[in-house]
Amino acid sequence: MTESEPYEASPCPPWCEQLQCQEPRPEDRFHQLARTVPVTLRRRYPTGSGVESHPEPAEVNVVVFTSATAQDETWVSLDVGDWSSTITVTLESMRRVHAVLGEVLGAAEA
Question: From which domain of life does this come (predicted)?
């Protein structure tokens, strides 16, 4: 398929922000929902006598996405852009992470 050919885009799901699914190239079209979360990261620095850690402000981008033009699963991505650290997992995998995260946060706060 060339860029000038029509394409069959899947209808936008209710959560789609309708931004990325408008890209000119079909392989770049995704239904997505993105949010940015301010966080404090623990950054570790090597020193002459070992390693020191310091809190640093950062942003985590949380994105849910699926292809707008091909059969694809729905994916969830957590991206710390400045550090180029990303995890992208299926929606079902992120549900499991979410459940365990709630469990460990509850234990840590008890």
Answer: Bacteria
